[in-house]
Write a structure and sequence with these properties.
4% strand; mainly alpha
Length: 106
């Protein structure tokens, strides 16, 4: 229908939405209260997302990395995501074939 847009929040109940909003407030408060994190963000220094996520969990703020990324993206915060070797491929070397002259073969 016209004028309708799908939203992931439509699938959440009111209490779930409130809990998600509370987490967002808690994350923002944690960052503002932590001088080191706040300084990194203000200076646009990229930081490891896992490091912040682990600190939040230690502080009792359980939030998925996906939700944390959404919150940080909404605020235009610069962060890094550590990826293992899963997605990386080794560059394979291709051998160059020797060019042969037709005259050399005759």
């Amino acid at each position: 229908m016209e004028g309708e847009c799908s939203n992931d929040d439509d699938d959440l109940t009111a209490s779930q939405q409130a809990a998600e909003e509370d987490k967002e407030v808690l994350v923002k408060k944690y960052i503002k209260d932590n001088v080191a994190w706040y300084k990194k963000i203000l200076l646009y220094e990229p930081f490891d997302l896992t490091e912040l996520s682990n600190e939040l969990k230690t502080a009792g703020i359980n939030i998925s990395q996906a939700k944390l990324m959404d919150i940080l993206d909404e605020q235009c915060v610069t962060y890094r995501i550590q990826q293992g070797n899963k997605g990386r491929r080794k560059k394979s070397r291709t051998r160059k074939k020797k060019k042969t002259n037709i005259e050399d073969e005759i």
